[in-house]
Amino acid sequence: MKIKNARSRRWLAGGVAAGLLAMPALAGCGDDEGSGGDGTLTVWSLENQTDRVQATQAIADKFTQQTGIKVKIVATDENQFTSLVTSAAAAGTLPDVVGALPLASVAQMASNDLLDTTATKSVVDELGRDTFSARALELTSQDGKQLAVPSDGWAQLLFYRKDLFDKAGLQAPDTFDKIRQAAQKLNTGAMAGIALATVPNDAFTAQTFENFALGNGCQLVDDAKSVTLDSPQCVETFQLYGDLVRKWSVPGAQDVDTTRATYFSGKSAMVVWSSFLLDEMAALRNDALPTCPECKQDPAFLAKNTGIVTAVGGPSGQPQGFGEITSWAISNTGKDTANARRFTQFMMNEGYPQWLGIAPEGKFPVRKGDKSDPAKFTTAWNGLPAGVDTKKPLGDVYPADVLAALSTSPDTFQRWGFPQKQGALLGATLGELPVPKAVNALANGESDAAAAAKRAAEDVRTIQKSVG
Predict the structure, then answer these.
(1) I need a labelling partner for 260 at 20 to 30 A (CA). Which of 155, 281, 319, 372 fits?
(2) What is the pLDDT of residue 28?
């Protein structure tokens, strides 16, 4: 899928890191984009939109003013990251630091021994481990090594129409049963119960499914690293997903753009999307404005009448939140480790509020504060203006309890594969997308829940053999 909206790009995070060893090296960064030979730090940033590159360079320039150390920010496309880093490693031109790196890409770099985990640990220790989200540190660590410095996160959320739920006497859809009940009751001729992704070649579908699966105890693998997608918990999750998309959702292939459009037009009672929806739903971006009938009089109608569920629980599990943690990774070039460490520390301290301000709706702080003020960065995030064409703090649009839930959501993030030290396998599965393919077959009526689970499990087992 080609992402049409820059704000939707985070749905691809991780999916492009499909296996550094498995992909051929392609033409990528030249020597001038690797570690600087003149003492300049080279920093790749996966925040590659022009405005975000400029904003990142502005923060880096402040670091240069303070230290005299020059920094060059190089925009790096997520779709090309795997091939670029592979060719750079082979040519000896790795950047000093990589920013906005998703979890699967961190795991892939670690599996190929491209990270300086000693330098990373020193940054975390100097900043104070207790100032970070414990879960963020856990997700970016393995075998006692701190692989990267967790920077920020975005959450996958279930958005629902509070006004419609209240009118129908429905509770917040935070369990499988409540979601099913609401979807069935609110599904009418003019309104779908829920809008869910079904496109087979899209990481968005994988992430939407995983969001439900985590809360039902459905895991990619178990502690013995055996694939468990055909477990009863996973079959149960496929059953729910299949019921929702076949009975109470929108017909046809659904992706990141169509699900948002359906909810924004007032034709769906629920949608699963990332936190990047927050500013768009508040009418702060002109090319993604809500179009519901009520929105003509009040552009912020949906923001005022939408509830947010940060973690869904199933009958066989406990509520879990799905989200992406992005990090600063220090490569093991050995060329300028001290300055790379200083820069990373700056970006997580003096430059941190400005970095979060690039997109507050998708950059929840995982470093809450510093030793003098444990809530310093969370407090700063609450007041950061979000949006593109119109700027406004999220706190001016959403209630304090919603912001509190969002800012603390990284503390409960979970992901397939990482507790079992199989982050590299997750990256490889997101490359071939076996789960979205199974979901699509389920949505089209080509298979039932058990068959979809079996298909996904068998495909992942095949991928696992190739990963080794």
Answers:
(1) 319
(2) 36
For 385-398, the pLDDT digits (tens) are 999 889 999 989 99
Catalogue the E-assigned strands of 255-336: 270-274, 306-309, 321-330
pTM for this prediction:
0.89
Contact (Cβ atoms closer than 8 angstroms) between residue 307 and residue 34: no
CB neighbours (10 Å) of residue 177? 14
- The Cα–Cα gap between 15 and 335 comes to 30
CATH topology for 156-321+421-467 is D-Maltodextrin-Binding Protein; domain 2 (3.40.190)
Under 8 Å between Cβ of 15 and 431? yes
Q: Where are the domains of the chain?
A: 6-154+324-414, 156-321+421-467
pLDDT of residue 37: 53
Asked whether 260 and 277 are in contact (CB, 8 A), the reply is yes
> pLDDT digit string (tens) for 291-316?
999 999 999 999 999 999 999 999 99
Is the Cα dihedral 357, 310, 272, 200 positive or negative? positive
Closest CA to 244 of 210, 191, 193, 286: 193
CATH architecture type of domain 6-154+324-414: 3-Layer(aba) Sandwich (3.40)
**What residues does 330 pair with on adjacent strands?**
97
Are residues 112 and 89 in contact, defined by beta-carbon separation less than 8 angstroms? yes
Quote the CA–CA distance of 46 and 51 in Å, as a whole number.
Answer: 13
Name the β-bridge partners of 154.
324
DSSP three-state, residue 367: strand
The half-sphere exposure of 21 on its side-chain side, counting CA atoms within 13 A, is 13
Tokens 């950059």 -> residue = 363
What are 434-463's pLDDT values in tens digits?
999 999 999 999 999 999 999 999 999 999
